[in-house]
Amino acid sequence: MADDAVSSGGADGVLPGWEIVVGLEVHCELKTRTKLFCGCANSFGQEPNTSICPVCLGLPGSLPVINKQAVELAIRIGLSLNCTVDKSIFHRKNYFYPDMPKDYQVSQYEKAINENGFLELPLSKKVVRIERAHIEEDTGKSMHVGGDGGRIHGAVHSLVDYNRAGIPLVEIVSAPDLRSAEEAREYVTELRSILVASAASDGKMEEGSLRVDANVSVRRLGVEEFGTRCEIKNLNSLRSLVRAIGYEARRQVALIESGEKVVQQTRHWNEDQGVTTAMRSKEEAYDYRYFPEPDLVPLEPSAEWVTEIRSHIGLLPASRRERLTSLFNGVSSGPVYDQIVTAVGLGLDDLVAGAVAKGAEPRLALARATNEVASDLGNLEMLTVDNFTEAIRMESEGKLSATQAKTVLGKMLESGANAREVAKSLGFEAMDSTVIEGLVDQVIRSSPKEWERFSSGEDQLAGFFVGQVMKLSKGKADGKIVTSILRSRRS
Ligand code: ADP
Ligand code: MG
Ligand code: ZN
Question: Of ligand 1's atoms, which has the minimum distance to the CA of residue 216?
Fold first, then answer.
């Protein structure tokens, strides 16, 4: 997981004497069929400006009609984040920008549909408060051509695509409860799993269906008052999120330590240079002149409808983790628990739970899922629970060595074939235990000194002997069988 060497916060010693404070605003595109206020398709990757109409272009005389499915998915998100779902109203947020054909964005300002929720982080066990999760419409996309890395500065001309304009979003605003870049990463990872599990969003950061704005401030350890924050816009990967927070916190600490002040600003993250740069400060902030949207009535979801929506939410990540931890005596920390968190985060828990229900050894199923299967997630649909179970059983019964089992799983993911067929085609015949006995005896004879030490109780030498037998058998002998033969030879 920790593939970034970049800092997080006071606690890990990178910024000694300081604490980072982070609050995140996460924009998530809803998986609806159509846009928020019109019948245009909500789809990614179409030809530019092919999914547009008078409503999402804001042409005079057009009127919005709220998309019921969008409201339903927004409520799913609210319920999944333990929010109170209540009456809400839409406002117009007025500003001019070429990717905003209407010159205003319809959003929920004073009263959001979902308020006051929380989520619990599985590893740090931290409870992060959710201030609100409101509905709004997405903007279009502009593309700046001929300049530096797609930025407007120095561009020769700009193109605009309104396919995204009017796609329903839910913006999830956390309280400033996060205390390091790592916690922010854990929060987004968990939030993403919840959004996917509740079937409200596909959660694809790489396609822009999940975009994060990070509010970052720093304060001296022990000080209660928050520092002045900066907001870093549009982080679209976990890696950028971690790096941007680390950079921004170090920048702010350096400013304060040199006697200067942090200015409240909106900042841009430059991925190539690894720095944040100022976009606009508080004084230059837009005055959005919010006012209630006159063309839409308030949303008042009935208690019955909310109850019905709740009954359709599938198993959420916390329950999914519980389902797996119950297979391991309710483990709540340590390497097995970490693997459980990974399995649920990657959507592999159905596979593991299914295999265990069919008799697979739990630890082995979990390990193979979070390593071998996880390394080829793109082919997950090629692996049925039955085939996975069979591979795990062949390994735990000693018909495949660990090395062989890993290779077999890799091929199964590529071809969709079952474990037996793959093992056969690779020439992985089960190695007879009498053959293994022969190999063990051969190794004992060629290493008399090591054998004497092992026989007189130096248990750590078992690894040496297993290794030698593995070499002779070219990885085909089963480690467990080798170990048990070794022990029986010693007594
Ligand atoms: P605004 O209305 O200007 O966007 P909010 O109060 O709604 O301001 O806060 C926006 C986000 O900023 C929230 O996610 C919140 O947690 C976060 N935030 C507020 N104050 C701080 C701070 N001092 N340091 C870090 N994050 C903060
Ligand atoms: Mg904000
Ligand atoms: Zn439209």
Answer: 25
